[in-house]
Amino acid sequence: MWGTEWPRWEVIKQDTEKSPPQMVGSVHATDPEHALLVARHVFVRRPSAYALFVAPAEAFFHVTREALKDPKALEVPEGEEEAYWVFAKRSHRRSMVYGDLVGRFLAKSPGEAVKEALLQTQGVAFWAVPERVIVGTEPKAEVIESWFAPAKDKTYRLQSYYGLITAKEVEDA
Fold first, then answer.
1. Of 145, 149, 107, 134, which Cα lies nearest the Cα of 13?
2. Fewer beta carbons under 10 A from the terminal one: N or C of the chain?
3. Domain coordinates of the chain in residue numbers?
4. Whether residue 119 has pLDDT greater than 70
């Protein structure tokens, strides 16, 4: 059964023009365009969005704050200098599962990009991905309207909005 799954794509969502892009989860898809469509249905059905991006999961370099205690954690073979997007998870709290974009860094390796990000921010985990593998929607009016406008009309409620069925209510039924 192994090898029959579509590749995994990490999803990056930007809620508003002024908010930072965040890593929000992953989807399985055949190619970047398919991944964007699946990501739209999974992550933008009710809350609105300004832009959506995807990148192959295997392109991400990941390191935790604990691993950074080992000086070799950021040693990755260097290549040509290129732009990396670096994300940081700021807390271990369950409700804080997103990785916020720290910035775009020119570096010869993802480890070097994370080192640069560490000069600007703190976090419990970091991800770096080459900008060249990121595919996204264009943040233009026609894209926002066609991709994300329907989400604005839907009522969005947290799960806690709905009541719980208690044992007494089940007995009475």
1. 134
2. N
3. 8-172
4. yes
